[in-house]
């Protein structure tokens, strides 16, 4: 973000007012990034900060003669699901691209004076989180021609056990999409993730960036040429966990990221978007952004990033208007305490993704001196920032009727019974002996607090009435996920950066 653009956005923060609760957003950002280290699979690096985790899944892929070690466990189990993992990498990358300039890059006494302690290397850690996922996706995309590996482990077998990643003895089967068994949704999201990650490393590691971009282009061509949903090809192992309801949005989403990542080919991808947008559903208004549905994010992204695609502004404005209470077009549901609420499990995934979009759109509006048109009402960037802060991010951190932080380890009161195998059980360091599949269930059902602190994990969150039951069996409310944390990294970076500007 340029200094001029940053000042415009910070000015919008000032206009939004300072009536909301005060939180240490930099500390929350540190923890949000740290969570990804707890979700790592594979051989852990020397700088691993979550010391209660150890190596796991080292032979992943061997059943198919390929190396698929690494990557992330998506939530509280030990499966590596490709679609949510790729979305996680895309959103981590977007967080760095959009708000990386608001994260300190190196440790220094100056930053320590602002944030407390000895300073932090938030941008370095965020890049490391991107690379860990991108390394895995790169292997999954290039191991075999015309093949994309999209999952490791049979989820039904995995869910029959409650065991640490380090003790896994359930089948580590691998699943892939091919020309005969297509998966344009998971392939499209993988292409988007690789393209977005290539932008993150364009300056700091050009050769790695080029390798990511080459793979992104190949995977996109594969996704577009062999169209079909992986929910049809692999329904027995991806449903009902991560069923995809359409692959059209992922194709446009991937083309949008490739347009941004490929300066020499941007016109090619812009032409693709122009030619395929209508057929792929770009004209349909939708009001949800998640690992499964990227339509609204794609339209906002294209409007702000792609020359000649201002035609999407009306659609993006409709989405924004649907979120603003009192605006013409408002149709969202909020809890009595002010939290955005969508029906279904793990509501916080929608909260964090929405907050991220509100802030990125506010940044765009500020830099272009524009507003959102909600009928006769003009909605300013400051309103969007206030909505993202007071009713979304601050709610997560503790400004809610329960006075509870829904980020583990942040604040005085937070969930202590997270639906997460590794957190609930004694670590290998403290209990070297193997804990078997069935033996582990006593930790799942135990009333005792977690044995290990899953710092930074944002759980599923409260229900429509702001009620939350802190119990491991309550996976809908107590399970964290990488795709919940990923967009929150960007949102917290925004508010941490604004706080930095205002600190004496």
From TrEMBL:
Species of provenance: Oryza glaberrima (African rice)
Family: Belongs to the glycosyl hydrolase 9 (cellulase E) family.
SUPFAM superfamilies: Six-hairpin glycosidases (SSF48208)
Active site (UniProt): 419, 470, 479
Name of protein: Endoglucanase
Enzyme Commission numbers on file: 3.2.1.4
Keywords in alphabetical order: Carbohydrate metabolism, Cellulose degradation, Glycosidase, Hydrolase, Polysaccharide degradation, Signal
Signal peptide limits: 1-20
Top EC group: hydrolase
GO molecular function, one term: cellulase activity
Reaction catalysis annotation: Endohydrolysis of (1->4)-beta-D-glucosidic linkages in cellulose, lichenin and cereal beta-D-glucans
PROSITE patterns: GH9_2, GH9_3
InterPro entries reported for this sequence: 6-hairpin_glycosidase_sf, 6hp_glycosidase-like_sf, Glyco_hydro_9, Glyco_hydro_9_Asp/Glu_AS, Glyco_hydro_9_His_AS
Domain Glycoside hydrolase family residue range list: 25-492
PANTHER family in the cross-refs: ENDO-1,4-BETA-GLUCANASE
Source superkingdom: Eukaryota
One Gene Ontology term from the biological process aspect of the record: cellulose catabolic process
UniProt xrefs under Pfam families: Glyco_hydro_9
